[in-house]
Write a structure and sequence with these properties.
Layout (H helix, E strand, L loop, with lengths): L1 H16 L6 E5 L6 E5 L5 E5 L8 E4 L4 E2 L10 E2 L8 E5 L8 E4 L3 E4 L2 E4 L7 E5 L8 E4 L4 E2 L10 E2 L8 E3 L8 E3 L7 H5 L1 H16 L5 H16 L10 H9 L7 H11 L3 H11 L3
Antiparallel strand pairs: 1-2, 3-4, 5-6, 7-8, 9-10, 11-12, 13-14, 15-16
């Protein structure tokens, strides 16, 4: 009867005060063996001594690096046993009421308890959903009229540009932007009469070839041939980007026009498709 009365009195008090009920658990009095209803200890504490017929539950605060997250009647608080790895940061510190919480740092996402680096969309694909701490980057093939020229884990596909009046628009694709050319075509009367016009065309051919997205194998072949041509015309070996090599070749022509030298290099590098494009847009248009 006393146990029933205890429960009912708690209910009546809670209802009258508007307070929420303190969670309870069933126990036996140490001395009498009588069943009693004990109050649980709140988060951040643990049970130091069970309640009895004439006393309430005794609770004690959690020591450092220990916690309890829920109402409880455990003898000891739990140890903060979560430790952040090199690809994580501490989002929430260990506290009396929570374990340490780690989250993947920028550029990584959680998968199967590990933080994995976000995917990189290849050239020709763009990011349609940025990666988060819990989701990988989502890539999508660039639709017609847009492109992505370099691998990226953050950049979307970009629209092809429009060329201003008076320039030739060399169409782009999913990996290349539209190339706007002011060159009047090799072999034209204007280029024959103007050194500046020829230099303009030479520069545009260099930039057009250098911006092409080639596989690693094809680029290596092209760079090898270009370096060989510079060594044949320079007192010391040239190094650097493809554009810088082509620029060096343009200043040391082999007794032929630069466009002919470029076509020779592309043929030697076995880049027939690119060779056709250069002829199509700079010699035959």
């Amino acid at each position: 009867l006393q146990t029933v009365w205890f429960c009912c009195s708690v209910l009546v008090f809670a209802a009258g005060s508007g307070a929420s009920l303190t969670p309870t658990y069933q126990w036996k009095d140490d001395k009498t063996g009588e069943a009693v209803t004990c109050e649980k200890c709140p988060p951040g504490t643990h049970m130091k001594r069970h309640c009895g017929r004439d006393r309430r539950t005794e609770c004690a605060p959690c020591p450092g690096l220990h916690y309890t997250e829920f109402w409880n009647y455990i003898d000891e608080c739990r140890y903060c046993n979560v430790f952040c790895t090199e690809n994580e940061f501490e989002k929430r510190k260990c506290s009396p009421t929570h374990n340490r919480l780690c989250e993947c740092r920028a550029g990584f996402y959680r998968r199967y308890e590990f933080c994995i680096r976000h995917s990189v969309c290849p050239a020709g694909e763009g990011v349609v959903a940025n990666g988060t701490a819990h989701e990988d980057v989502q890539c999508q093939t660039c639709p017609i009229g847009s492109y992505s020229s370099t691998p990226s884990g953050t950049e979307p596909c970009r629209p092809h540009r429009w060329c201003p009046p008076g320039q030739i628009a060399i169409p782009g694709d999913d990996k290349h932007d539209t190339f706007c050319s002011s060159c009047k075509k090799y072999g034209s009367e204007e280029i024959a009469k103007s050194v500046e016009a020829k230099r303009l065309c030479d520069r545009e051919v260099m930039e057009y070839v250098a911006q092409q997205h080639l596989s690693e194998k094809k680029l290596k072949r092209l760079m090898t041939v270009a370096k060989k041509r510079t060594r044949e015309n320079a007192t010391e070996q040239e190094e650097g980007t493809l554009l810088s090599l082509l620029d060096s070749i343009s200043k040391n022509e082999h007794g032929r026009d630069f466009i002919e030298e470029i076509l020779f290099i592309l043929k030697k590098a076995k880049l027939a498709n690119l060779e056709k494009k250069v002829k199509r847009w700079f010699m035959e248009r």
